């Protein structure tokens, strides 16, 4: 999981610390107080008032020698920008091999460089840790986009007596149906039973697939025959939820190629009719730059409020998380880490950074 990106980042830290850290010396002049003579001043000061004039003269004399100038050599380490630049350039490319989109790799390296510039490493400090921390901050900065916790949102909706409408989108085969089932399972476990809307009426078998999940998990599902208007299915599911007192509706939509204009229009129609609280795009981590393309496309065409990235357990590269979040600047809400219903975890940027840079 995430192996290639992890390795690239670790190598980047090692290479910088081995090749771009230079030792520097700085001679500084310091003024050091002369403690002994200070005492003497005090003695003089304490003499009687009649002696004031003499005292003042003496004080002057002492003052001149009150501070002594000493030269001190400060030894420290610094990152040499000339040596750093080519390493960073090389790593923009190496990151793309771990599925980090080119412009995201550039952005990350730029953020990292900004943090390293002018950084002084004092004696006793661990240079590798300082470099790693700068990288940690740069990655965190890139992916820390706060998004809703769907369980919390569902609880809120329930308490307020309204219906939380969540619409799921994604191209064929990314794991959308499985993900909806995982979300339904998560909500049910938290005490909120959602209604499923089988609005993927485009692919024969899609309704059946979702139905099976609904039965296994034990949640209601609203369906219509193959070829029906998806917006009508979604609408009916909301009416059903209202009538029966459910507070969440999860709407499945047909998997489609993002470049298919008709299908994209249909998706817009569903969104227009039901006005979802969240439009969630499901993306497959294994598809790398394609996932980034899809994210861009769906965001422009329909609008995306959050992303669920699937198959992260099987992802040997790891760049998709960085790429998707940084390209559309929308939060990643959950990660799919297996085929079971329990295999959905909330995305936590700090946890993710630790997975990449921790031991
Ligand atoms: N390893 C792994 N497999 C997953 C994950 N999520 C989904 N899958 C698998 O991916 C395959 C496709 O999942 P589906 O849910 O059928 O995909 P879909 O996007 O709904 O596809 P369509 O029904 O064609 O639109 C299935 O075999 C799932 O078990 C995940 O997080 N990890």
TrEMBL record:
InterPro entries: AAA+_ATPase (IPR003593), P-loop_NTPase (IPR027417), Signal_recog_particl_SRP54_hlx (IPR013822), SR_rcpt_FtsY (IPR004390), SRP/SRP_N (IPR036225), SRP54_GTPase_dom (IPR000897), SRP54_N_sf (IPR042101). Belongs to the GTP-binding SRP family. FtsY subfamily. Part of the signal recognition particle protein translocation system, which is composed of SRP and FtsY. This is Signal recognition particle receptor FtsY. Its EC number is 3.6.5.4. Gene3D superfamilies: P-loop containing nucleotide triphosphate hydrolases, Signal recognition particle SRP54, nucleotide-binding domain. The lineage of its organism: Archaea, Thermoproteota, Thermoprotei, Desulfurococcales, Desulfurococcaceae. It comes from Ignicoccus pacificus DSM 13166. Residues 95-122 form a coiled coil. Residues 331-344 form the SRP54-type proteins GTP-binding domain.
């Amino acid at each position: 999981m995430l192996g290639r990106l992890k390795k690239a980042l670790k190598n980047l830290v090692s290479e910088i610390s081995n090749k771009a850290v230079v030792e520097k010396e700085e001679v500084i002049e310091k003024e050091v107080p002369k403690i002994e003579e200070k005492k003497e001043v005090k003695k003089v000061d304490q003499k009687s008032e009649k002696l004031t004039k003499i005292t003042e003269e003496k004080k002057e004399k002492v003052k001149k020698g009150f501070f002594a100038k000493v030269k001190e050599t400060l030894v420290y380490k610094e990152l040499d920008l000339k040596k750093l630049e080519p390493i960073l350039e090389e790593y923009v490319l190496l990151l793309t091999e771990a599925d980090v989109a080119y412009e995201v790799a550039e952005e990350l390296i730029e953020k990292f460089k900004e943090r390293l510039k002018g950084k002084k490493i004092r004696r006793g400090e661990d240079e590798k840790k300082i470099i790693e921390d700068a990288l940690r901050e740069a990655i965190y900065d890139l992916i820390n986009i706060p998004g809703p916790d769907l369980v919390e949102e569902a609880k809120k909706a329930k308490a307020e007596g309204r219906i939380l409408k969540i619409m799921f989108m994604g191209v064929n085969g990314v794991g959308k149906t499985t993900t909806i089932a995982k979300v339904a399972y998560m909500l049910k476990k938290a005490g909120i039973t959602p209604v499923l809307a089988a609005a993927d009426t485009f692919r024969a078998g899609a309704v059946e697939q979702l139905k099976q999940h609904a039965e296994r998990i034990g949640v209601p599902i609203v369906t219509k025959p193959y070829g029906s208007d998806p917006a009508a299915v979604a609408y009916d599911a909301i009416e059903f939820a209202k009538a029966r007192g459910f507070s969440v509706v999860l709407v499945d939509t047909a998997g489609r190629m993002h470049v298919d204009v008709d299908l994209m229009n249909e998706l817009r129609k569903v969104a227009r009719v039901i006005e979802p609280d969240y439009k969630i795009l499901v993306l497959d981590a294994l598809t790398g730059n394609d996932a980034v393309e899809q994210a861009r496309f769906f965001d422009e065409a329909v609008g995306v409020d959050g992303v669920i990235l699937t198959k992260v357990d099987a992802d040997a590269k790891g760049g998709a998380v960085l790429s998707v979040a940084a390209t559309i600047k929308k939060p990643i809400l959950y990660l799919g880490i297996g085929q079971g219903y329990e295999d959905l975890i909330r995305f936590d940027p700090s946890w993710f950074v630790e997975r990449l840079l921790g031991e």
